[in-house]
Amino acid sequence: MKKSVLIFTAFIMLFSLTTNAQNNNTTKNNYVVLTKKIPQLQPILITAEELKKEDGHHFGDFQVIVCGQTVTGLTEKKEMQKYLDRAKKAGVSIKACGFSLKKFGVNPEEIPSTMEVVDNGILYDFQLQKKGYFSIEL
């Protein structure tokens, strides 16, 4: 009887370890960066590119949220296009904080159409953190 219990326990432990290993292999690393300065997009995108290489098939979603007064610079479409092109290649989405756009009088139609506007960038960041995203504010 003892031998049967030991074998059964060993089997359950082995099954548990195998299941955990399989779950870890499908886990994606998701990232969100909240920035208040457009020039910081350059090092953020470099970081995303490096993480994509490092993470391999574990690289998931990478989002950047632009908040604060710097949203006024999002209307400089030529300047922004170089960031957006690089972001697209790296699998990064750049979003604008709708609260900041309103506060600083920026018409959402004046920013590049490929940029999504989120209602409240800070709230959106917290919501992603609750979903397990790695987060940093610059």
UniProtKB/TrEMBL annotation:
<dbReference type="InterPro" id="IPR003787">
    <property type="entry name" value="Sulphur_relay_DsrE/F-like"/>
</dbReference>
<dbReference type="InterPro" id="IPR027396">
    <property type="entry name" value="DsrEFH-like"/>
</dbReference>
<feature type="signal peptide">
    <location>
        <begin position="1"/>
        <end position="21"/>
    </location>
</feature>
<keyword id="KW-0732">Signal</keyword>
<protein>
    <submittedName>
        <fullName>Intracellular sulfur oxidation protein, DsrE/DsrF family</fullName>
    </submittedName>
</protein>
<dbReference type="Pfam" id="PF02635">
    <property type="entry name" value="DsrE"/>
</dbReference>
